[in-house]
Amino acid sequence: MSQNDIFSAALDAIADPVSGRGLVESGRAAAPRVNGETASVILDVSGLSGDARAQIERAIRGKLTGLGGVREVRVAMTAEKPSRRILAIGSGKGGVGKSTLSANLAVSLARAGIRTGLIDADIYGPSQPRLMGSEGIKPTAEDKKLIPVQTAFGVPMLSMGQMVKPGQAIAWRGPMAGGALGQLVDAEWGDAELLVVDMPPGTGDVQLNMIQKHRPAGALIVSTPQDLALIDAARAIDLFRQADVPIVGLVENMAGYACPHCGEISDPFGAGGAEAAAREMEIPFLGRIPLDIAIRRASDAGFPPAAEDGPQGAAFAEIAAQLIRSLSLRAG
Length: 332
Ligand SMILES: Nc1ncnc2c1ncn2[C@@H]1O[C@H](COP(=O)(O)OP(=O)(O)O)[C@@H](O)[C@H]1O
Ligand SMILES: [Mg+2]
Fold this sequence. Notes:
GMP Synthetase, Chain A, domain 3; nine-stranded mixed sheet; 2 domains; binds magnesium ion; binds adenosine-5'-diphosphate; 34% helix; 14 strands; alpha/beta; Rossmann fold
């Protein structure tokens, strides 16, 4: 047996708590590197509790110390970053319903079984704490990591609005906003597989930081039926396209008017404009959300209408179903 084999065999005599097989055989540890009296082991601690990590570390020291004259054992722990993807919700201008859509799509995705977190990255007008009924609740931190606020709708949430006092954010310079965004993205999201990010309107520092540093898996663009909003939307689409972020689609919000009495949808501004524009820009059209007083009322009261069945919930659920397909998300 070579020295290498002897050290590997010693590690394989320790069982990986997850698979039950030896540490090297299971891929939990690489074959130790021995240099003089020092042995170094790289241990992948993904999915292990703090207790289990400490226990394995002690076992490794116990097995290797003294073996082949080794007096010092160094254990380096690494953890695989969970494969979590980001969906950026953007628009060319404010007031088109980005935040409303972000909140309700996150809730619809969670109801469909997708582990979803929600980030409010709009420093100029953070609105997710209000939309998700958790105003005034501050996130806590552990090991310098933020712990998202649990909402009543199965979607953990963090907002730029929780990072600053009201009225202060506007004075932030780009780098500060970038740092805060990083803290939100790298927070303790647990096993969330998707982060829905409510972006600020337009094409500023936060957008560039998001695109360059956090590489969204896709961007969804919100527009209203008015032409002007669509021209702005095209600008937002360009920004993501230039950075090779796939546009998962365009959603037309405040499309048509839902009669508060009978629910019938009428189209005071005409219909089909956004769909035609999406076709022209060669991006998928994901659907329309009508201008509906029930959506506004529920949103203002901190209850995303997507949290319950009904015509409003169904409209968001349909868009969520398309997102699940185009991002190949799996419920679990
Ligand atoms: N489909 C809709 N029907 C009725 N009101 C809506 C709808 N979408 C958004 N709103 C309202 O319009 C306003 C702006 O929406 P918001 O989501 O805050 O836009 P943005 O985040 O793009 O600035 C809010 O008062 C919201 O309640
Ligand atoms: Mg907003």
